[in-house]
Write the structure tokens for this entry.
Amino acid sequence: MAKKRSYNEGCPVSHALDLVGERWALLVVRELLLGPKRFRDLRDGLCGASSNILTMRLRDLEEIGVVRKYRAGAPVSGSVYELTDWGRSLEPVLFALGNWAVSSPFWDRHAPSTVDSLLLSLRSQAMFVFAAGAPVAGTCDMRVDDDHYILRFGDAGLDITRAAAYEPDARVQLDAQTLKVLITGDETLDDAIDAGRVSLHGDERLIRSLIK
């Protein structure tokens, strides 16, 4: 594997940084944790990364076996990127980094966030919620702006996939900014419903177990 820079150490931590320590690399992984994406969807999510930089990061991640590229059929009909099994194993690393960073005095929790990062934050919170009490079970279709996500609640916690749910137990529709203020606790779910920014149908326990 040809790398532009290396720490040239035998330490596994330094080797990990050789592999995924370049700017934007781990954020590409974050954006693919909930499912495959097209290049333009990644570029729209990582709006601070130029097309050239994003192309280089994807190429690097493909080269080391973290990401793979393939041709998808209808309705996508184009090239998409997804994590390999090895790439997906970075998920607990990202969660650990995020949980560490929330204690930072320099963290601006009101700064912009991608929808995927918000949903991953919600799943991280679910680990603590479900550990504290009896988990609910069921499937929820969550529509955030124009994207659908399946939220599956069960004994193992919360699983989230970028797709539309078939005959879910609950449906919720909201925009990304509303999702953000609900996750941060700056607004309650009932207030957002009363204001018309959240539409909630079906088994409300599913969402209310995560968002108050």
Q: What stands out?
A: The longest helix spans residues 115-132. The longest strand covers residues 147-154. The CA atoms of residues 172 and 200 lie 4 Å apart. The chain has two domains: 12-101, 115-208.
